[in-house]
Design brief:
homodimer; alpha/beta; Arc Repressor Mutant, subunit A; D-Maltodextrin-Binding Protein, domain 2; 7-stranded mixed β-sheet; 10 helices; 44% helix; DNA-binding
Chain lengths: 308, 308
DNA sequence: TTATATATTGCGTATAATGCAATAAGCAAC
DNA sequence: GTTGCTTATTGCATTATACGCAATATATAA
């Protein structure tokens, strides 16, 4: 019989029409997803999609199953909502750690949903440098951290993807800051950069320069993404930051966004210790985050971020 | 994530409120079903039913999940119907073997559904003694048999339950046949019985007398369930037959149905060789039977049996 | 008390799922 | 053509899961 997990994977295939990407989205290997497809087809006795080395094309039967999968998963989400009200409301204190940047993007919606379901639950929010946020899970009694998604997944940590922020490269708008006459629109090499002191964004930027074989000229190092925008606005150099940080900055109009299409995304996730996955509170929060994660992307698109 | 197989098992639990019986219906062991319940509860993070040595009581959350399970499985059945139309219609010849009794109960609906889906498929129907019908699968080129469900499941045979016929004990109505003055309403011992020559019904009756420690007095042996009713009507003895046979018999008004509540059911199933489960045609017919099996029970209740 | 019925759990086994690495095959650029 | 990139699939070894049997614990009935 059909497993909703498999149905969800098939939906990713329908969206992307690309097995490899769908596998990434589903957090399984392409081989697993390939086998899921054959399993579904054997179970349903129908060809769901034509597949060859060119890619994937969903069949008519596949579209029928897609609808079924969508309905089922929507119903399941609704069921979870209904069931949430049957759960004994959680009590105690929930400790969340996140960066200032993240806090005002995710926390409002997360907490307002949480208050509805579990009014008794006290929430303690700590903000700080996200660079080594994951360490807090082990030592500081923190239940969850909202952190940049680490490149290689830690064995002990379970996470829910919250959002993928596009990165943007920014330069000062004021023509009075010519940055020594460098033509920074065409080359990266040796451009003076304002960089975060450390953390995931820092290494992402270093990697980006490496793949472009450009020398990274670190002009100044700053703690906190927001401050970076200010520095750039004042002509201290160029920078790469999540675009959302630019949009929300009071200096937004003092920088220009350069056209760099190959910048990676800056993925943010809600993380907790895998060893605690069984605890009702951990599971409840995790499910909640999983359910509302898609709405963050919507919020991002509509620039509706903290009007709660 | 939820597997529809588990959801179906939970539905059986909701129907019976009894783990052991639900396990039987689902064809799994009670231990498996028990673990399915805990798995579902862990997955959904809710208590679905209270369970102790007295039995099972479904919770409010359980009822919510029951509705979800029903919806999902209904949608799945609808999906399968839709997909069936996408399948390349089957060709060739399908050979079915069944008893005369069974043929006019199941075959009409089965074949009319089949014709709709696969007009090209030729159907060859053979009728005969169901006693050793299963042997036909091995030797006689028969694809399916409709047969009494064997007590211990054969390793090589896969089956779909079609219906459970209640058995009924019947006696002649005509007071001119006092059967030697025996008070057969209170005791079974030594009552003159009309029995089928052999087959599942025969052994079921023998078992029934054994558990009641009553001597089985075989007055006459008859081939064919229908004829048994005639014999009883004519005063040759008492008999135990599927109640449906009585209801459909032209001698229906010449026998009376005795009040025996502990008679077992007479289960009928559609069987095929497990080794052929992978063949598209076998799978299609099997799925079709699985989907329409519940309607047989409805037909039985409403006595609507062969108006097709 | 004994017998029957209930659900659960320990344990060994069988089945299935998973990811890695290798493979095959199309496509594009040179 | 050839090389390099991308695509999906498959062999293989590992791990996880599912399963049923048998034993257990507990309640109900005789």
């Amino acid at each position: 019989m059909i497993d909703l997990k498999d149905a969800a994977q098939f939906l990713r295939v329908c969206e992307t029409e690309n097995l490899t990407r769908a596998a990434l989205l589903s957090k399984v290997s392409p081989s697993t997803l390939s086998r899921t497809l054959t399993k579904l087809e054997k179970e349903l006795n129908v060809k769901l999609c034509y597949r060859d080395q060119k890619g994937i094309v969903i069949t008519k039967a596949g579209r029928l199953f897609e609808r079924f999968a969508q309905d089922s998963l929507r119903n399941f989400a609704l069921l979870q909502q209904s069931l949430a009200q049957e759960i004994a409301p959680l009590k105690g204190t929930l400790k969340i750690y996140c960066s200032v940047s993240a806090s005002y993007i995710f926390i409002p919606r997360l907490l307002s949903e949480l208050r509805l379901l579990h009014p008794e639950l006290e929430i303690s929010l700590e903000t700080g440098d996200p660079a080594n946020a994951l360490d807090f899970l082990n030592h500081d009694g923190i239940d969850f951290v909202i952190a940049p998604k680490p490149k290689e997944l830690n064995e002990n940590i379970e996470l829910v993807d919250l959002i993928a922020f596009p990165l943007a490269m920014i330069a000062p708008r004021n023509p009075a800051y010519p940055l020594n006459g460098l033509d920074y629109t065409n080359t990266l090499d040796n451009i003076p950069m304002v960089l975060p002191e450390r953390g995931k964004l820092r290494t992402d930027i270093e990697d980006y320069f490496k793949t472009h074989k450009a020398k990274l000229n670190v002009l100044s190092q700053v703690a906190g993404h927001e401050a970076i925008v200010s520095m750039v606005a004042l002509g201290f150099g160029l920078a790469i930051v999540p675009r959302i940080i630019v949009d929300l900055s009071p200096f937004k109009n003092d920088v220009i966004i350069l056209d760099k299409k190959d910048l990676p995304d800056f993925d943010v996730a809600l993380c907790h210790l895998k060893s605690r996955s069984g605890e009702p509170c951990i599971k409840a929060i995790n499910d909640l985050a999983f359910n509302i994660a898609p709405s963050f992307a919507q919020d991002l698109r509509s620039r509706k971020l903290n009007n709660f």
